[in-house]
Amino acid sequence: MERKMEEKVEIPTSDAVSKKNQSGLRAKFLKLLTSMLVLAVMFMTVGCEKKARLYIYNWTYYTPDSVIEKFEKKFNCRVIYDEFPSNEDMYAKLKSGGSGYDIVFPSADYVSIMIQQNMLERIDRSLIPNLVNIDPVVLQYANYDPRMEYSVPYYFGAAGITVNKARVPDFERSWSIFAREDLRGRMTMLDDMREVMGDALAFLGYSVNTTNPAQIAQARDLINNSWKPNLVKFDADAFGKGFASGDFWVVQGYPEVVFEEIAEDPVMRANTFFFLPPEGGPAYIDSMCILKGARNIELAHQFINFIHDPEIYAEFADEFGFPATANIPARQFKQGESWYSVEDLANGKFEIKYDIGSSLELYNNAWFESIRAGE
Question: What is this structure's pTM?
Answer without folding.
Answer: 0.79
